[in-house]
Specification:
The complex is a heterodimer. By secondary structure, chain A is mainly α. Chain A has helices at residues 2-28, 33-61, 94-117, 124-143, 147-165, 173-203, 208-214, 219-236, 244-251, 254-279, 285-307, 313-337, 342-381, 397-410, 417-432, 434-459, 475-493, 495-511, 513-521, and strands at 64-67, 89-92. Classes of the chains: A mainly alpha, B mainly alpha. The interface between A and B is medium-sized, with 19 and 20 residues.
C-alpha cells in the first residue's frame, strides 16, 4: 500500500514534501531548537530519499510522466482537450533525474552541515523555511515539463535565494548583494516570461514536448531563444552576465552559497533543456553552439583571471565557480555545434556532452565542499580575509584535508573527480578545435596555482597567536563535508562506472528530442 | 506617529467594511474576478489603514505577530494539505476531489447564463480561503515590520 503510493506519486512527493516541511517550519520551529533541527533534517532526509527513489525509477523504467490534477497520474492528454496536454506535467527523464540526484545529495550534506554551522543566527525558522523553499524550487525546475511552471520555480528560487543571501545583514553589505541578485534575477525572469509568452502565443501550448513538436523556428522563435539564453546565462553566472556572483556568493552564509551553486547548475540545465529539447535541430546549431562555446571560454578565462588577485576567500571561490561553469558550457556547446553532424557527434560530440554533464555533478560536489570548508574556517575564526589567516592546519586538520580534496578536484588532478570530467572535455574538444582544449587546460593550471596560494595562506605556517584557541569544526559540519569528500574520491576512482550508469543516459535523454516528445504525446 | 482623532475614527469605521469586502472577494474567487490573493490583499489594506492611523506601540498591543505568523503558515499548510488530500484519496496531487461530490462546495455547475452558485467548484474555494488567509497574515506582518523601522528612524 505505502510502496504503491510512493511508486505512483514520486514526482509529486518530491515537491510536496519539502513544501509542506517549509510551511510547517515556522510553527514547529517555535517549540525548541532541537525540535526544529530534527524537523528540518527529517524533511530533507525524506526529500533526498524520494529523489533517490525517483532517480532509480527513471533510470530503470524510463521517463516518468506525472500529471497534476488529472484523474490518473499518467493521463497526459485528456480525451476532451483536443490533443493538447493542458495540465501541469512533470516529465522526469534521465537528464532531469540526474539533476535531481545532485540536488538530493548536495542538499542533504548542506542541511546537515547547516545544523551546526548556522545555529548562531537569529530568525532560524525563517532561514530554514526559505532554505527548504529553495530546495523545492530547484527540484521543481529540473523536474517540470511545463514552460510556465519552470518560470514559477525559477522565480521561487530567485525570491528565496535573494532573501537568504541578505540573511546575515553584515552592516548592509549582504542586503545590498541580496538586492542586486534579486534585481538581476527578476530581470532574467521577465525575459524568460516574455519568451514563454511568445511561444505560447504561437503554439497555443506551454508543455515543452508539445511546443517542441510544433516548433517552426520563425523569427519570433529566434527572439524567444535569445531571451531564454540571456536569462538563463544570467542565472547561471556565465561571463559577461556574471557580475552578481562574487557579491552574492561571498556575502551569503556558506551553506547558502553551496546551495546557490546548485541553483546555478539548475539554470544551466534549463538552458540545455531549452536548446536541446525545445529547439533541437530546428535552430542553427552551429551558430548557437558557438555562442555557447564563446560564453564558456569567456567564463573560464575571465573567471579564473579575476579569481587570482582576490583576497576574500569566498569571493575567490565565487570567481572560480564562474570559471568552472565555463567548462560545462564549453562541453555541451561543442556537443550542440555538431548536433546535426552524426559522424562528428558519434566521434566526439557525444563525449563532449557527457563531459559537460559529468562536470555539472562534479562541480556541485567539489564546489559545495570548498564553500563549506570556507564556511567552517569563517565559523571558527570570523574573518574572510586571506591575509589575516594562517597556520590553521595545526588546529583544523579534517577541514584542511577536505579543503585539499576539493582544491585538487577543482584543479583537475587525478584521482579526483574533476580530472575525470575535465579529461573527457579536453579529449573531445581537442578533436573539435585544438585551441579551445588548450585554453581549457591553461585555465585548469591557473586554477591549481590559485588554490595552491589559498591553501598556503590559510593552513600553512606556524600557528598565529590570535588563532591559538581555534578548534576543529563541530561534528555535524565535518560529517556534511565528509560525505561530499567521499563522493568526490569515489567518483574520481570509478569515473567509468559513473559515466556509464548516470551520465550517459542523461546525455542520451538530452539529445534525443523524440523520446521526450513521445513520452507526453504518445507514439509520435 | 499617532494620527488625529478624525482619522482614527474614520479608519475604525471603515475597517469592518474593508474586511467584509476582502472576504467577499476571497469567497467569490471561483465566480467573480479576484480570488485569494486579491481578497487577502484587500483585507491587509484594512489592517494597513488601522496601522497607519494608530501608532506602532498601540497596533503592536492590538495584534499579536505570532497569530499573524500562524495565519501565514496555516494558510499555506491548508493549501498544500488540500492538494495532498487528493493524493491520500488515491488521485494525483492537486486533483479536485471535492468537485461534484455533493458535499461542501460540491454542487455541479448549472449550465447557461445564471448569477453563479457559491457552493460549486470543489476545492478551489478552499484554496482561495487558504491563500487569502496567508496573504492577509503575510502582508500585515510586512507592514508591521516596515513600520517598526520607520518608528526607530523617526525618533
Amino acid at each position: 500500500m505505502i510502496t504503491d503510493f510512493l511508486l505512483h506519486h514520486t514526482p509529486a512527493l518530491l515537491v510536496a514534501v519539502p513544501l509542506l516541511g517549509a510551511f510547517l517550519t515556522p510553527i514547529i520551529g517555535r517549540i525548541s531548537p532541537i525540535v526544529r533541527k530534527i524537523w528540518v533534517m527529517g524533511t530533507m532526509t525524506l526529500t533526498s530519499a524520494i529523489a533517490v527513489l525517483l532517480v532509480y525509477l527513471v533510470y530503470t523504467r524510463g521517463t516518468f510522466v506525472y500529471v497534476f490534477g488529472a484523474l490518473t497520474p499518467g493521463l497526459a492528454i485528456p480525451p476532451d482537450s483536443g490533443g493538447i496536454p493542458i495540465r501541469i506535467i512533470f516529465t522526469v527523464d534521465p537528464m532531469g533525474a540526474f539533476m535531481d540526484l545532485i540536488v538530493a545529495v548536495v542538499g542533504f550534506c548542506v542541511i546537515l552541515y547547516s545544523l551546526s554551522g548556522d545555529e548562531k543566527r537569529t530568525g532560524l525558522h525563517y532561514f530554514y523555511t526559505l532554505f527548504l523553499l529553495l530546495i523545492t524550487s530547484v527540484l521543481g525546475m529540473v523536474s517540470t515539463g511545463d514552460l510556465f511552471n519552470f518560470f514559477v520555480f525559477i522565480e521561487i528560487s530567485s525570491l528565496a535565494s535573494a532573501g537568504l543571501v541578505a540573511f546575515s545583514v553584515e552592516q548592509g553589505r549582504a542586503v545590498e548583494a541580496g538586492l542586486k541578485y534579486f534585481m538581476i534575477s527578476t530581470m532574467g525572469g521577465i525575459f524568460l516570461l516574455f519568451a514563454i509568452g511568445i511561444l505560447y502565443g504561437q503554439y497555443n501550448a506551454l508543455n515543452i514536448a508539445m511546443i517542441a513538436e510544433r516548433m517552426q523556428f520563425t523569427s519570433l522563435d529566434k527572439i524567444a531563444l535569445v531571451l531564454m539564453v540571456v536569462a538563463l546565462a544570467m542565472k547561471c553566472g556565465a561571463v559577461p552576465l556574471h557580475f552578481w556572483t562574487p557579491d552574492a556568493y561571498s556575502l551569503a552564509p556558506s551553506t547558502i552559497t553551496a546551495m546557490l551553486v546548485v541553483v546555478s547548475q539548475a539554470s544551466l540545465y534549463g538552458l540545455f533543456r531549452f536548446v536541446f529539447t525545445l529547439y533541437n535541430l530546428t535552430l542553427n546549431y552551429v551558430t548557437i553552439g558557438w555562442v555557447i562555446i564563446i560564453l564558456g571560454v569567456l567564463s573560464m578565462v575571465i573567471g579564473v583571471t579575476m579569481a587570482i588577485p582576490q583576497k576574500d576567500v569566498k569571493r575567490l571561490m565565487a570567481y572560480h565557480a564562474v570559471s568552472q561553469t565555463g567548462y560545462m558550457l564549453l562541453g555541451v556547446g561543442v556537443g550542440l555545434a555538431v548536433l546535426g553532424n552524426q559522424a562528428a557527434l558519434d566521434t566526439y560530440g557525444f563525449i563532449a556532452i557527457e563531459g559537460g554533464l559529468f562536470h555539472i555533478i562534479n562541480h556541485a560536489l567539489y564546489k559545495g565542499l570548498l564553500f563549506l570548508t570556507a564556511g567552517a574556517i569563517i565559523y571558527r575564526i570570523g574573518t574572510r580575509d586571506l591575509n589575516k589567516m594562517g597556520g590553521l592546519g595545526h588546529s583544523m586538520k579534517y577541514t584542511m584535508i577536505f579543503f585539499m580534496i576539493g582544491a585538487l578536484a577543482i584543479a583537475g588532478i587525478p584521482p579526483f573527480n574533476g580530472f575525470a570530467s575535465k579529461l573527457l572535455i579536453y579529449e573531445s574538444v581537442y578533436l573539435f578545435n585544438p585551441l579551445l582544449a588548450i585554453i581549457a587546460m591553461v585555465v585548469s593550471i591557473l586554477t591549481l596555482a590559485s588554490f595552491v596560494k589559498v591553501f598556503h595562506s590559510i593552513f600553512m605556517g606556524p600557528t598565529l597567536p590570535e588563532y591559538s584557541k581555534v578548534r576543529e569544526a563541530p561534528p555535524a559540519m565535518l560529517i556534511g563535508m565528509g560525505i561530499l569528500a567521499v563522493l568526490i574520491i569515489a567518483f574520481g576512482f570509478f569515473p567509468q562506472l559513473v559515466v556509464d550508469s548516470l551520465v550517459a543516459p542523461a546525455a542520451h535523454a538530452l539529445i534525443n528530442q523524440g523520446s521526450y516528445i513521445s513520452a507526453i504525446l504518445g507514439g509520435a | 506617529m499617532r494620527m488625529s482623532k478624525i482619522v482614527r475614527t474614520g479608519s475604525d469605521l471603515m475597517y469592518p467594511f474593508i474586511f467584509i469586502f476582502g472576504w467577499y472577494v476571497i469567497m467569490h474567487g471561483h465566480l467573480t474576478p479576484g480570488g485569494g490573493f486579491q481578497g487577502g490583499a484587500v483585507v491587509a489594506t484594512g489592517a494597513a489603514l488601522v496601522i497607519v492611523a494608530y501608532s506602532y506601540q498601540e497596533v503592536n498591543a492590538m495584534i499579536k505577530k505570532a497569530i499573524l505568523m500562524f495565519q501565514e503558515s496555516g494558510g499555506l499548510v491548508l493549501f498544500i494539505g488540500a492538494g495532498l488530500a487528493g493524493m491520500i484519496l488515491g488521485f494525483p496531487f492537486f486533483y479536485n476531489w471535492l468537485a461534484n461530490s455533493g458535499s461542501l462546495f460540491g454542487m455541479s455547475v448549472i449550465p447557461g447564463p445564471n448569477p453563479g452558485e457559491l457552493n460549486t467548484a470543489g476545492f478551489l474555494p478552499l484554496m482561495n480561503i487558504a491563500v487569502g488567509t496567508e496573504v492577509w497574515g503575510g502582508l500585515t506582518i510586512v507592514i508591521l515590520y516596515m513600520l517598526s523601522g520607520v518608528e526607530k528612524e523617526g525618533i
